[in-house]
Amino acid sequence: MTTLKSKLKEDLTTAMKARDELTSSTLRLTLTAITKEEVSGKTARELSDDEVQKVIAREAKKRREAAEAFAQGGRTEQAERERAEGELLDGYLPKQLSDDELGAIVAAAVDEAKATGAEGPRAMGAVMKIVNPKVAGLADGGRVAAAVKKLLAG
Predict the structure, then answer these.
(1) DSSP string of 73-84, one letter each residue
(2) 36: how many CB neighbours lie within 10 A of its CB?
């Protein structure tokens, strides 16, 4: 069992003993998503820590989107719960890049893309190809795309 998955299980046990409903239900759903990912496909397999991290990131993103939708729908109580679940899951992910750090990485990638002849908004794909491996797991794809668009637009 991967170390991240075992940490989730240990934390679930601790939360259940403490009768922490929010934490236990969030971790249960996340562990279920991990198990579902493990058994999808032709053969069952054990996920690596990186793959488990991707599942956790996907679950956290779902929580953020749901919180936004509930807030727009006027259901503040449900939105707060979704936000709390998202923050709980963010604790298992690596620290996200700050806007300044992300901007520096994107600026370097834009310069690199310009050196190969790609300029303007059409260079988006080339720049994203350079940036994505550097920021994988450290920044949300939407944030990265927005930063790239902003820099390419001028």
Answers:
(1) TT-HHHHHHHHH
(2) 10
What tokens does 135 get? 């920021």
Burial class (CB in 10 A: 0-12, 13-18, 19+), 55: buried
Contacts of 128 (CB under 8 A, 6+ apart): 144, 145, 148
pTM: 0.75
* Burial grade of 64 (CB within 10 A; 0-12, 13-18, 19 or more): middle
Token code pair at residue 44? 């069952």
Decide: 61 and 98 in contact? Cβ < 8 Å.
Answer: no
Helix axes of 141-153 and 124-135: crossing angle, nearest 10 degrees: 140
Rounded Cα distance between 58 and 52, Å, is 10
Residue at 123: amino acid letter: A
* pLDDT tens per residue, range 51-107: 888 888 889 889 999 999 999 998 999 999 999 998 898 888 888 777 778 778 888
